[in-house]
Design brief:
Layout lengths: L5 E5 L6 E12 L2 E8 L7 E8 L2 E6 L3 H19 L2
InterPro entries: UPF0473 (IPR009711)
Pfam families: DUF1292
């Protein structure tokens, strides 16, 4: 059984901590991104950019549509490669 990696982020609107499961980490254009899904819902997913602040990784939700779509496209490529192995 594979261990799930849980990442806690702060909801910018409600200021509440949310636990999300790491689905995939993606490197794109010298940036690191993570695809995260709620632990209680496997249909939704969110993309966060990993930003290093004072030597510590922080997670910023990707809101720019072009950046979001580029990460989704890269994830789709990785998923297709995995399925074809």
């Amino acid at each position: 059984m594979e261990d799930k990696k849980i990442i806690t982020v702060l909801d910018a609107e409600t200021n509440e901590k949310i636990e999300l499961e790491l689905v995939e980490e993606i490197n794109l254009n010298d940036m690191r991104y993570v695809l995260l899904a709620p632990t209680d819902n496997d249909e939704d997913a969110y993309i966060y950019k990993i930003v290093n602040v004072d030597g510590k990784d922080t997670y910023e939700m990707v809101e720019n549509e072009e950046e979001f779509n580029a990460v989704v496209e890269e994830y789709d490529k990785l998923f297709d490669e995995t399925m074809n192995e």
